[in-house]
């Protein structure tokens, strides 16, 4: 596994912009840290983190044409808001170019931007690591969200989705409905936790 990780890092260093490569490495280490905290397989978490943005060096237009070329279905809204498509195409690249056949890793890459209802532990680890890695500094509430990542992962995912939607709605333009679906699911989970008296996490 270690040799494969080194090969993948070398390949991605060649392909990605230096800042994207640094982000990739930071996300992979955050994935390892969260896997330690939540008893997940460290190597799978590292691999998912390393590959999560493996299609990010293509432009939106290139990704749309690559998805069409490979027969990946594209919805109208994905074409209107193509920023999330690097995740869908990234899962294809990880499987077909880098030989990843683990469905948990492919799912974590596929949903790292939008999230989805009922994410697996690895889905949540990669989604969260992508948002809180140390190179991120612009999102509001980052310090609270970083602490939550290690104390209540579902609540953390809810706060990330809430903050992402607020940002995207203020910016205007199209927001992928997958993000709204994920938000609705984790908001409901959060509200249920409050009703059960578990929502009093004071951070
Ligand atoms: Fe990404
Ligand atoms: Fe990323």
> Taking Cα atoms only, what radius of gyration do you get, to the nearest Å?
17 Å
The parts where pLDDT drops under 50 for at least 5 residues are none
What is the helix/strand order? HHHHHHHHHHH
Distinct small molecules: fe (ii) ion
Main CATH class: Mainly Alpha
Q: Whole-number average pLDDT?
A: 93
Tell me the number of helical segments per DSSP (H or I, 4 or more residues long): 11
Overall morphology: globular
* Percent of residues in β-strands: under 5%
Question: Into which percent range does the helicity of residues fall?
Answer: 55-70%
Sheet bearing the most strands, described?
A: none
- CATH fold node name: Hypothetical protein af1432
Q: End-to-end span in angstroms?
A: 37 Å
Number of domains: 1
Q: Which structural category fits the helices and strands?
A: mainly alpha
Q: Look at the structure and name the CATH superfamily.
A: Hypothetical protein af1432
How many strands in all?
A: 0
CATH architecture: Orthogonal Bundle
């Amino acid at each position: 596994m270690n040799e494969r990780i080194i090969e993948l890092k070398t390949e991605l260093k060649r392909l990605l912009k230096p800042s994207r490569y640094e982000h990739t490495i930071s996300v992979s280490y955050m994935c390892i840290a969260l896997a330690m905290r939540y008893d997940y397989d460290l190597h799978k978490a590292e691999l998912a983190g390393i590959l999560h943005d493996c299609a990010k060096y293509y432009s939106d237009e290139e990704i749309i044409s690559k998805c069409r070329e490979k027969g990946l279905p594209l919805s109208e809204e994905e074409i209107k808001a193509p920023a999330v498509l690097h995740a869908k195409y990234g899962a294809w690249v990880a499987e077909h170019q880098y030989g990843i056949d683990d469905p948990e890793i492919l799912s974590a890459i596929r949903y790292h931007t939008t999230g989805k209802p009922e994410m697996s532990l690895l889905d949540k680890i990669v989604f969260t690591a992508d948002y809180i890695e140390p190179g991120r500094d612009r999102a509001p509430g980052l310090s609270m969200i970083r602490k939550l990542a290690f104390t209540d992962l579902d609540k953390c995912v809810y706060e990330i989705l809430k903050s992402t939607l607020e940002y995207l709605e203020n910016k205007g333009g199209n927001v992928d409905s997958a993000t709204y679906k994920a938000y609705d699911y984790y908001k409901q989970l959060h509200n249920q936790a409050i009703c059960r008296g578990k929502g009093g996490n004071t951070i």
